[in-house]
Amino acid sequence: MGNNLVIVSIILVVINSGDGENSDPAPVESSQPTLSSSESSSVESSSSSESSSESSSSSVQSSSSTSSRSSQSFSVGGDTLTGGPNTPASRSKQNNDSEIPASWLAQQFAVGGLNDQGECSNASLCSPEADPDNDDLTNLEEYNYGTDPQEEDTDSDGVSDGNEVYVYYSSPTNSDSDTDGDQDGDELAECTDPIVVSQQKISGSRLNVITRNAGLKPLTNATIKTLRDAGANRNDIDKGYINSKCTSISVEL
Ligand SMILES: [Ca+2]
Ligand SMILES: [Ca+2]
Ligand SMILES: [Ca+2]
Ligand SMILES: [Ca+2]
How do residues 145-160 score in pLDDT, each as one tens digit? Predict the structure, then answer.
């Protein structure tokens, strides 16, 4: 009798303990389908005809990043907005002053700009930061570069003073910056480099720099006219060169 009780109680204990073990919550199987994150970026093989320059731009980056949506950010190292100290533009800079001398003011703005004391009385015309000829060089910059503050294209080569300094790095006071016999504007019209003695087309890396610069300092009227006369469209004006004239660029680097 006593043994039966023991057996029954043992059975009950086993049953109870068994229920306890089994009542553990079944592990929720997170069997969610694994999304394949390998979205093969076969988009890269863009055979769009108009992007010959774009492909050359990406070649400069030498970036093996798969998701290269950053086609707008150029990583052309080392260039400041003025192209550094060894360009025809920077070498043409005559002064590095922070103020315009009274003598230059009197020379350039004798009519309608100065009061009896020789001071500028018409800020939109003759203040240091004014740009009355809309060439993207302020009067102070015009003084420092030795250019005409009331003439958009001082050396009459078809490229505005400011575009020479900040976009192409050509000389605003020498119409043939690389002294190869071809004027700067004519070189841009044919997509040869106005600061490189060569009949080759402008290099892809230089085109990248030009386009970056043109985005920061858009082309002004004199330069736009030169490019338009040579067949440029709106997109070319934005980029700073005539794409159809630059087609033989080799994609290297
Ligand atoms: Ca100016
Ligand atoms: Ca000027
Ligand atoms: Ca010029
Ligand atoms: Ca030249």
Answer: 999 999 999 999 999 9
